[in-house]
Design a protein that fits this description.
about 15% strand, three-stranded antiparallel beta sheet, three-stranded mixed beta sheet, Arc Repressor Mutant, subunit A
Length: about 150
């Protein structure tokens, strides 16, 4: 089961301070297309802010997710992964190495999604995650066969 956690922004006046740590975490995350774990992102941010703690990275990522600034991808396998692109898009996960990539499409892949009601729920969004084999794992598999 794949879960995407995206919550609406906080009420006006309750926004967290925009600290140097928070800005750097968000800046580094938005540069990436790899959907890093908190630990991977911590390693990158630590190069610029050597005194930052892993706990600070976790707390800020979760706060930014609650505020709608980042997406959290949780699959039940492995660590949560974070995405700095909060626009509607799909994800694809490699079944071998768990690498996550984006599928950018302006077309809904579910026919009729916007044209007829599927439920009496208020639909806030859709998360579809595709599974496949990434190019690196494909190359490795071809090399191993030789």
């Amino acid at each position: 089961m794949v879960i995407i956690l995206k919550k609406g922004g906080q009420k006006k006046g309750k926004m967290k301070r925009n600290t140097i740590q928070r800005r750097m975490i968000l800046e580094e995350l938005k540069k990436l297309r790899t959907h890093p774990s908190a630990i991977e992102l911590y390693s990158l941010v630590r190069r610029k802010l050597p005194k930052i703690s892993l706990g600070t990275v976790y707390r800020n990522l979760e706060a930014m997710a609650r505020e709608g600034q980042v997406l959290v991808l949780a699959s039940g396998r492995g660590p949560r992964r974070y995405d700095g692109n909060v626009e509607n898009h799909y994800h694809i996960r490699c079944v071998h190495c768990s690498r996550v990539g984006d599928i950018m499409s302006d077309q809904a892949l579910i026919p009729g999604l916007k044209t007829r009601p599927l439920t009496d729920y208020e639909v806030l969004g859709v998360h579809i995650e595709f599974f496949g084999v990434c190019p690196d794992c494909q190359r490795k598999k071809r090399r191993d066969k030789k």
